[in-house]
């Protein structure tokens, strides 16, 4: 079934995603000059409280300008990414976006068949001439999260749980460890991979294992699996750091901050560059572009020395002088 967005949808639902339904724009509301965007969401889809939900906020921002019509597809409806891309091509959108590295192969297959259609790929890099690539400097954002963990840990053990062991997810873990060790020489990091982005149960199991091993600050880059990590942290009285979006509402007694990966910004950035950029451009969003960062710190009480340590690390990271 075809889906689209209406004004006010996001304002009504911040954690709305599992229960909200989208509706089709009223034809009489269509403006001839309005541009059109189609998005194939990541594998978990709406309700992941992370990547797809962040993208939806960006789509909502465009829709609210009145200058964009936005439509999307979820994998549980189309069954394959390729089918979703083909449906959006048939609908004649100005630009079609694939969300996440897992859809790259299918996006490129469809893009090769439709060389005049403009595509964009978020979280991976394509070399096709009609595909814009948007990636993030996850290492930078995760390093900030790691610095918080390094200052907050009492056991000097922190834990990282990735959705899968690949180059992209490793960037989260590498940055997390870098940040922690930059402010705390004694810290060690436990690492596990779930091989699943859609299983809170696996996330809880891996978190329990790391907590039993002494980790008292956990960080997951694992989509819906990471929700289980946050829940386990709260249940066991340890601290956690969310990812992609501010995830404090999932486990308010555990989450002390979240590494923000501004997928909503990426959606808007693609729209802004539609007419002015060659469509094989690679856009990389880091701290300087507000593409990554931290949500507000919660229940963190640092003394002056710890605050200076964090601020000095943050300054080095932003200036590119970190060794």
TrEMBL record:
Belongs to the BMP lipoprotein family. It comes from Exiguobacterium chiriqhucha RW-2. Keywords: Cell membrane, Lipoprotein, Membrane, Signal. Residues 39-316 form the ABC transporter substrate-binding protein PnrA-like domain. One of its GO terms (cellular component) is plasma membrane. This is ABC transporter substrate-binding protein. It is a lipid-anchor. InterPro entries: BMP_lipoprotein, Peripla_BP_I, PnrA-like. Its main location: membrane. Pfam families: Bmp. It comes from the Bacteria. It is found in: Cell membrane.
């Amino acid at each position: 079934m075809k889906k689209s967005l209406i004004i006010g949808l996001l304002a009504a639902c911040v954690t709305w995603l599992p229960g909200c339904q989208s509706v089709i724009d009223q034809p009489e509301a269509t403006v001839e000059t309005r541009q059109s965007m189609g998005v194939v969401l990541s594998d978990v889809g709406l309700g992941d409280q992370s990547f797809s939900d962040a993208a939806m906020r960006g789509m909502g921002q465009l829709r609210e300008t009145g200058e964009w019509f936005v439509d999307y597809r979820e994998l549980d409806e189309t069954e394959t990414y390729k089918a979703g891309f083909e449906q959006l091509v048939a609908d004649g959108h100005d630009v079609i976006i694939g969300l996440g590295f897992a859809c790259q192969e299918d996006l490129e297959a469809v893009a090769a068949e439709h060389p005049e259609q403009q595509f964009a790929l978020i979280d991976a890099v394509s070399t096709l001439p009609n595909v814009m690539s948007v990636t993030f400097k996850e290492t930078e954002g995760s390093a900030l999260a790691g610095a918080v963990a390094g200052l907050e840990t009492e056991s000097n053990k922190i834990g990282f749980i990735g959705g899968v062991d690949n180059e992209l997810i490793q960037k989260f873990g590498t940055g997390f460890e870098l940040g922690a060790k930059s402010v705390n020489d004694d810290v060690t990091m436990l690492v596990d991979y779930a091989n699943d982005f859609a299983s809170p149960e696996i996330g809880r199991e891996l978190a329990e294992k790391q907590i039993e091993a002494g980790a008292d600050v956990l960080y997951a880059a694992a989509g819906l699996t990471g929700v289980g990590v946050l829940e386990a942290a709260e249940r066991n009285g340890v601290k956690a750091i969310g990812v992609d979006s501010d995830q404090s509402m999932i486990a308010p007694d555990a989450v002390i901050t979240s590494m923000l990966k501004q997928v909503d910004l990426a959606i808007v950035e693609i729209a802004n560059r539609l007419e002015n950029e060659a469509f094989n451009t690679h856009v990389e969003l880091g701290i300087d572009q507000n593409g990554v960062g931290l949500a507000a710190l919660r229940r963190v009480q640092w003394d002056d020395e710890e605050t200076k340590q964090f601020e000095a690390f943050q300054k080095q990271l932003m200036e590119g002088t970190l060794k």
